[in-house]
Amino acid sequence: MYKNAPLLLLAAGLFTCCDGTRNVRDYYFPVQRLIEGKVYAYAAEEGDTTERRYWYYRAFVRDSGLFFSGVQYDRFFQINQIVREKITSDGVIARQVLLYEADTAGQKLLPVEAVIESDDLFPFQVRDSHGVFLYRLRYRPPFDSAGEIYLIRNRRYLGPGPDFEWEGKKYPVIRFGLREAVGHQAEGSAEIEGEGEEWYAKGLGLVFFRKTFGETGQIRLAYRLREIFPMTELERRADRLYRAEEKAKEKPPQ
Length: 254
Fold this sequence. Notes:
Blueprint: H1 5-18, E1 22-23, E2 38-44, E3 52-62, E4 65-73, E5 79-87, E6 91-102, E7 109-113, E8 115-123, E9 125-126, E10 132-139, E11 148-166, E12 169-185, E13 189-201, E14 205-213, E15 219-229, H2 231-250
Antiparallel strand pairs: 1-9, 2-3, 2-15, 3-4, 4-5, 5-6, 6-7, 6-8, 8-10, 10-11, 11-12, 12-13, 13-14, 14-15
């Protein structure tokens, strides 16, 4: 009864190889090379092109596995959010999300931990645009304890994108389509929907993203990777801005 076993194994192997599945793990951030941490600086390509978003990425090896964290800073070097992820054999999943919201007086940013309801961030195995990877969270802002804000994000693999040129070298790219809904629930409810794309370059990670919100697309965001540098450089820039602000305060009015 086992004389056809080798043929069955061969058929199973061919099905696994030829079912259209693609391994895209190398297109996520180079986690193993980010043990020491690096800052990815993204520049706006819509609206105010002087706008910047900085992400400090760092990997951690623990007994329970490989973990990855990202800290986002705005153009004034204030923290907006912290995301902690786990790298699994199947992909990247969210483990903790901290969002920084202003207090009722608007003087201080307070960390608020979100409840992660669906944790898919980046799949390592993709096949076609029909597969949907769901990321969903909710949290209560400090200025509105009776309300709740939620985010629903669907990612779909769209296939290859245009090569991304970085420091004189071209990197192959894959694209993910995004559909998002951001809502606020209180006594009533309000929700805004959006769509967009993310581009990931092999060996670099996220290099471009764009989003459009509203029925007429009145809210538009687009950012492209411009720089990668150590955390010491971000600290230097933040210190320079702080010193300039302090100097401006000391200047007597005309």
